[in-house]
Amino acid sequence: MAKELDGILDSSEAEPAKSCVTNDGSTSYLEKIITPIYLTMSAEANNNNDGKAAHSAWRNYDDFNEYFWSRSCFELSWPPAENSKFLRKPAKRKRTGKTNFVEHRTFLHLYRSFHRLWIFLILMFQCLTIIAFHHGKINISTIKVVLSAGPAFFILNFIECCLDVLLMFGAYKTAR
Q1: How does pLDDT run across 5-52, given as a tens digit for each residue?
Q2: Which residue, among 10, 69, 3, has the nearest Cα to 61 in the 3D structure?
Q3: Long-range CB contacts for residues 112-118, cutoff 8 Å, separation at least 24
Q4: Where are its TM segments located (predicted)?
Q5: pTM of whole model > 0.70?
Q6: Residues 94 and 122 placed together within one structural domain of the fold
Q7: CA-based, 20 to 30 A from 170: which of 57, 88, 144, 147?
């Protein structure tokens, strides 16, 4: 692929890449490159049981994206070989597995995904409640009590770090 690109860039006139010329002589990047990947993704999407299948039961966009960032992407060849494992359509019994990591969804991910927002909301609630119980007066004694939001901030960040470790344990375990 790199030699072909170098040859195209060296020539003075534009000509189609030899690998993207079809049997009938037409040039179709869409037909040779995009269509096989689209058909594979479409077959995988049809295999998800209308969104009810488990996240680990079918390959989704993240798995395809992860594949193109891995070294095994180079095994696909140029143009992509139609019989490659990556372009294999899912069958009823035998399927192409996930590429690396399978996320397990829990309600704790709700906190972890939006932890900055949750921390902000909890700390604002704490500070505004303190101000309300001091009858809306902001003086030195109110500010001293509002400073108790500091330890609460550290506790909430510690909880977020613990959730990172717990919820991403599968990713840490499978990482190279």
Answers
A1: 777 777 777 676 666 677 776 667 777 777 777 887 787 777 776 766
A2: 69
A3: 112/160, 112/163, 112/164, 112/167, 115/156, 115/160, 115/163, 118/156
A4: 114-133, 153-172
A5: no
A6: no
A7: 88
- Classify each residue of 2-25 as buried b or exposed e, where b means 16 or more C-beta atoms within 10 Å of its C-beta: eeeeeeeeeeeeeeebeebeeeee
Cα gap 167→45, rounded to integer Å: 26
Contacts of 104 (CB under 8 A, 6+ apart): 55, 167, 170
Q: Does 79 share its domain with 41?
A: yes
List Cβ neighbours of 82 (8 Å cut-off, separation of 6 or more).
36
Instruction: Indicate if 134 and 84 belong to the same structural domain.
Output: no
Asked if residue 112 and residue 87 are part of one domain, the reply reads: no
pLDDT of residue 154: 95
Per the CB < 8 A criterion, the answer to whether 118 and 156 are in contact is yes
Per-residue pLDDT tens digits for 63-111: 777 777 777 666 666 666 677 777 777 765 444 555 555 556 677 777 7
Contacts of 47 (CB under 8 A, 6+ apart): 53, 57, 58, 90, 95
The reply to whether 9 falls in a domain is: no
Residue 163 structural domain? 107-175
With both helix axes pointing from N to C terminus, report the angle between 115-133 and 149-167 in degrees, rounded to the nearest 10. Answer: 160
